[in-house]
UniProtKB/TrEMBL annotation:
<dbReference type="GO" id="GO:0003677">
    <property type="term" value="F:DNA binding"/>
</dbReference>
<dbReference type="InterPro" id="IPR013762">
    <property type="entry name" value="Integrase-like_cat_sf"/>
</dbReference>
<dbReference type="InterPro" id="IPR044068">
    <property type="entry name" value="CB"/>
</dbReference>
<protein>
    <submittedName>
        <fullName>Site-specific integrase</fullName>
    </submittedName>
</protein>
<keyword id="KW-0233">DNA recombination</keyword>
<dbReference type="InterPro" id="IPR011010">
    <property type="entry name" value="DNA_brk_join_enz"/>
</dbReference>
<dbReference type="InterPro" id="IPR002104">
    <property type="entry name" value="Integrase_catalytic"/>
</dbReference>
<dbReference type="InterPro" id="IPR010998">
    <property type="entry name" value="Integrase_recombinase_N"/>
</dbReference>
<feature type="domain" description="Tyr recombinase">
    <location>
        <begin position="150"/>
        <end position="333"/>
    </location>
</feature>
<dbReference type="InterPro" id="IPR050090">
    <property type="entry name" value="Tyrosine_recombinase_XerCD"/>
</dbReference>
<keyword id="KW-0238">DNA-binding</keyword>
<dbReference type="GO" id="GO:0015074">
    <property type="term" value="P:DNA integration"/>
</dbReference>
<dbReference type="GO" id="GO:0006310">
    <property type="term" value="P:DNA recombination"/>
</dbReference>
<dbReference type="Pfam" id="PF00589">
    <property type="entry name" value="Phage_integrase"/>
</dbReference>
<feature type="domain" description="Core-binding (CB)">
    <location>
        <begin position="14"/>
        <end position="113"/>
    </location>
</feature>
Length: 352
């Protein structure tokens, strides 16, 4: 893909900075997903626009000047306005969005350092330690924006029942998509990219292809008998749309009938249902969070959950162990059992 052509209409500022386009072309040539290139282009374009406005030469920018860009991001209202569900960075963008905007800027400066155009990265990957300066080298000083590590949100049992009640009124395609998204802990892209030949109904298994995953790791995951019944019903319904093998979930709108269902269409469906159910925080990723937390609650081992989820590192999986409260609950119950036995022994006059 020609990055210059694709991104010029969205962010013309990129075409005025040759090194920026060169860096993006490298990522595109290395096979990064189009959405990743788009996100990198957006983040870098916002930074370059600030540089042009303030008369800063990006290649020569200092950590102080990059800090001004961060300050602007923290005070900038979100473009989504009242649709924003959670803001955790004060008056501006969320902490996760701030990190997302800084990643391409940091990687761009890594590229400039590797090319010998700079001696250090003004963004850096700092980790605080007493006595260290706020430098630009790797591992030195504080990061520009402290990363907030928050547990994923999952609905309460009452909220989950509200979501299910709203989905019961939906077409069979939407119901089976929700069931598979929860049953197999699928990410949005993994779900929408499923193909008919990814299914193994005889063993109630489905294949999640590497090219559709975040970690580029293929995996095979099971689904329940109840979901299998819904899926069989949908496959009979799908024949009326198309008999061709290929994308599993098809659009049923008049304009795009029998075309593959897009990520954005599924997001709109889930958003509409979430609002109808009065659970606005529910999103396409919530079912994955809920499934992995439920597996932790059931006592699945860490590495089993990581394999099921397709996590590249168990660090991500640990969040669901923590969210389930399993470890803390086990320790509390064990300590309470000992305490209870001690109190009973004390009351009855028996030695422990």
């Amino acid at each position: 893909m020609d990055v210059a052509v694709v991104l010029e209409d969205k962010w013309p500022v990129l075409t005025r900075h040759e090194r920026a386009l060169e860096w993006l072309r490298i990522w595109a040539d290395l096979g990064r997903a189009p959405r990743t290139i788009d996100a990198y282009g957006r983040g870098l374009a916002e930074y370059l626009e600030v540089c042009e406005r303030d008369g800063i030469e990006p290649i020569a920018a200092t950590r102080v000047q990059v800090g001004r860009f961060v300050r602007e991001l923290t005070s900038r209202p979100s473009r989504r306005g009242t649709n924003v569900l959670v803001l955790d960075s004060g008056s501006g963008l969320s902490n996760a969005t701030l990190q997302q905007r800084l990643v391409p800027v940091r990687l761009f400066y890594d590229f400039l350092v590797e090319e010998g155009l700079r001696e250090s990265n003004p963004v850096g990957r700092g980790s605080y330690a007493p006595g260290r300066r706020a430098g630009g080298g790797r591992g030195e000083g504080r990061p520009l924006v402290a990363r907030m590590v928050k547990l994923p949100w999952i609905p309460s049992e009452a909220e989950w029942r509200q979501i299910l009640e709203a989905f019961r009124e939906e077409m069979i395609r939407n119901r089976v998509m929700l069931a598979l998204a929860y049953d197999a802990a699928l990410r949005r892209e993994e779900l929408c990219s499923l193909r008919t030949d990814d299914l193994d109904p005889a063993h109630r298994m489905l294949r999640v292809r590497a090219e559709t995953t975040k970690t580029r790791r293929e995996r095979a995951v099971p689904y329940s008998a109840a979901t299998g019944e819904l899926l069989a019903e949908y496959l009979r319904h799908r024949v009326g749309l198309s008999r061709a093998r290929g994308p599993l979930f098809l659009s049923e709108s008049r304009r795009n009938r029998a075309e593959p269902l897009t990520l954005w269409s599924w997001s709109k469906v889930v958003r509409r249902i979430a609002l109808a159910a009065a659970v606005p925080r529910f999103s396409t990723h919530t079912t994955r969070h809920l499934c992995l937390t439920d597996l932790a609650r059931m006592g699945w081992e860490l590495h089993a959950i990581a394999t099921f989820a397709g996590h590249a590192s168990t660090d991500s999986t640990l969040r669901y162990i923590h969210l389930s409260g399993r470890d803390l609950s086990d320790k509390l119950n064990a300590s309470m059992t000992h305490l209870h036995a001690w109190r009973v022994a004390a009351l009855t006059g028996r030695s422990g």
